[in-house]
């Protein structure tokens, strides 16, 4: 029996020694192994760490709050995404609309695969329809809605819904056998249409943007759908071009926008986009309504670039002279100037003032080579039958705003378009 016990003891000691060697040697081998797996692990960890160091960002909590903002009540983070983000971990797609725009989020969420911040304008009875639309998306579509999308609600103070209390009225449930709340609803039947309520487009934009947890944001219209893999490719670009992303940099990163005809498929990658463009199935965004507003520098060269993996910088330009009407969509940060809240949708040209401020600050606009946006199918045109009616006068006219901006930031040659400030 002693020999047996001794043999068992020897065996156990041998196993323990082997285990220790394995525990020591395997990590040692991984550290020195040139395999793709080990490189991937090390690169990912270093990338996440270095982005925080490069941009000097800070994390923000995702908290529900109700605040009065000018003549509006803002229900911030009213319906929250389950996933929380550190400031350096992703890029947030920020967008706005009313509940009739909600179906566009289905495509955006599917393609973006990351945090989305949505500010909905919802006064009077539209408030409840908006909550039902949110519940429908969260319960009857992809689980990604619950994981990634946070909703904010903006209500006109003079048009508060009658049911009280509102702060806890949202119920996260929906009978998915019923039609979506936004289906078969005419815009003329909206509460805000019936009561001629102004659409505070730039207040919504700022709320959606400032609510993002991530340092980087893409503020885009809700009917603009992104190409695939923007987030991981952009974060890799940050680590490659560190100097463009430090806290002193005044650079934004433009995604060229396009349109496709009704009933056409929205391309998901650049190869598909270029093929459609060459076959006249895709055109520059707003080509027939405001071509200078979205004119991309060297577009023909951009289209002829060899399509490569990842994301790189194509060219850089200023928003001056021939581009002084430019209203690009870009990845930026909340350090960039906010959108001009004294201008509403009804006034028209609602993004020009923000871009004018960036011009005065001498921003660089870098065009990304392998990322883009495509408008919901249907090419917009203006005609005598369908004119652009968004020219409602405001006391905050462009001349008055420009005078204020120049007093703060100074003047810069080429930023001003004679067409804009009249």
TrEMBL record:
Organism name: Pyrocoelia pectoralis
Annotated protein name in UniProt: N-acetyllactosaminide beta-1,3-N-acetylglucosaminyltransferase
Record keyword Membrane present: yes
Keywords: Membrane, Transmembrane, Transmembrane helix
Transmembrane segments: 7-26
